[in-house]
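Why should sequence recovery work at all? Because a backbone constrains its sequence more than one might expect. Tight turns favour small or flexible residues, buried strands favour hydrophobic ones, and helices have their own preferences. The token representation captures these environments compactly. In the example below, the structure is given first.
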């Protein structure tokens, strides 16, 4: 029997993914449900319970010692509650308590999805071997997490490293968070596309107005598309440099849909970083694309559970 297994949950507005993960980061079993994001909170929890029930039907479940959850945020690990922006039925929802009850009292570790992806990249991905790292998800929003002194640093509520809401433009556009000129307001996929459209870029015959379509146009040399990605790159560089100056990270890892744009993003980002990260102790800061892909949330949730619970298998029969 595996004695270093944990159950992992990756909860977002589109899907609830679950897995059994071993101590080497290998996913041994998967389960998934669509998130009923517009339904009442307990209906969403029913989908989470369905994922757990499917995992618990496996004989492997007897070796599971804890559950790790990476959830869309905001999360509050200090109270075990979540209030994801894209799941309106969950507001201060007691997710840890409900998952603990659904699994017969297993220990449960809750972190935000940005912190989960950071844990995965540090354990198995682009930040492996780095003791001080910032890992970012640049997608519909911009999230992130920190590794400091070789350990994940989620902070008291599980939100430390949330770089998307550092202000990098004092007189910039109002952000939905209530601040102004945030990294997310400039560098997220929808905002890259919005700025390109406002600047006169137009989609092709397929009508695709996503950031991926803007990236394709930028690769083809469309000046407005190039400018929109350069603006996003400068915002990211300013946020990364501020973080590095504050806590002395030596690598910034960028994942998410926008991170897949490749040189269209990374070339201007590295150039801008040289302008912003100027002090001697941040000049060797490197930037790298994420490596973990779509499993990052699950692997990172598992990492959090493995590092916070002692290695002792539960002896309960399968079933939740």
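From this structural description, the recovered sequence reads:
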């Amino acid at each position: 029997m595996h004695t270093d297994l944990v159950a992992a949950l990756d909860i977002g507005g589109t899907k609830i993914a679950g897995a059994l993960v071993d101590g080497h980061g290998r996913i041994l079993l998967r389960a998934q449900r669509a998130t009923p994001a517009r339904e009442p909170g307990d209906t969403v929890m029913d989908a989470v319970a369905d994922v757990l029930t499917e995992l618990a039907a496996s004989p492997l479940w007897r070796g599971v010692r804890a559950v790790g959850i990476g959830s869309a945020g905001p999360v509050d690990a200090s109270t075990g509650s979540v209030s994801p922006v894209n799941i309106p039925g969950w507001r201060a929802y007691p997710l840890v308590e409900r998952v603990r009850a659904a699994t017969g009292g297993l220990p449960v570790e809750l972190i935000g999805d940005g912190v989960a992806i950071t844990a995965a990249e540090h354990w198995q991905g682009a930040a492996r071997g780095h003791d001080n790292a910032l890992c970012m998800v640049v997608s519909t929003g911009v999230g992130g997490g920190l590794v400091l002194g070789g350990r994940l640093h989620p902070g008291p509520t599980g939100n430390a490293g949330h770089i998307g809401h550092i202000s990098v433009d004092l007189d910039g556009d109002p952000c939905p968070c209530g601040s102004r000129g945030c990294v997310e307001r400039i560098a997220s996929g929808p905002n890259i596309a919005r700025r390109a459209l406002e600047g006169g870029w137009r989609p092709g015959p397929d009508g695709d107005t996503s950031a991926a379509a803007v990236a394709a146009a930028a690769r083809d040399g469309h000046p407005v598309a190039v400018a929109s990605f350069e603006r996003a790159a400068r915002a990211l560089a300013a946020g990364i440099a501020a973080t590095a100056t504050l806590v002395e990270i030596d690598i910034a890892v960028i994942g998410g849909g926008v991170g897949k744009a490749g040189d269209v993003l990374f070339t201007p980002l590295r150039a801008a970083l040289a302008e912003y990260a100027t002090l001697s102790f941040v000049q060797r800061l490197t930037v790298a694309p994420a490596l973990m892909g779509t499993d990052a949330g699950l692997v990172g949730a598992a990492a959090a559970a493995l590092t916070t619970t002692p290695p002792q298998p539960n002896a309960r029969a399968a079933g939740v």
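A few observations help interpret the result. The first helix runs from residue 41 to 56.
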